[in-house]
Design brief:
eight-stranded antiparallel beta barrel, Lipocalin, alpha+beta, 2 helices
Length: 156
Amino acid sequence: MSTHNKQCPRFYAIQTLACLTLGFSALANAQSLSTPFTGKWSIDLRTPSERKENVDCGKAVFDLSQTGTRIVGSHAMATPRCGRMNDGGEGTVKGLVIGGTAVLTVTSTRNGQIVLGSAKIRANALHWQVSEEIRSGEPEGDSGLILYSGVLHRDH
């Protein structure tokens, strides 16, 4: 038996292992792309008693559109009973996806406040956290009604 024939099974095993590795890598990439940030995400901010009373408002919403690594969209928030509102609107959210994290700026249409934050998708939920205020709103001390942190779920 020649040396070449003895090494062929080893070559095919290495080739098969390489193909499997590439296949699993492609599957992992496809799975990460199958959960983009695109969608309408919301969190109910009402207390259990307010939910039981079916109180209006009390919600924060991100409506995001991801194209490649770019994200644009809207953020809106209203206190329970609609006492204070940030209506959001097109372009109030802008950012980039870096790795599996969306780095976003959010602008309040209520008072002009701008914050920088990050979002990750874990277990089909959007985990949002503000990291810093870029610009305070006016008048001073007035809340821009931008969600500071929370776990939002995709609206269906």
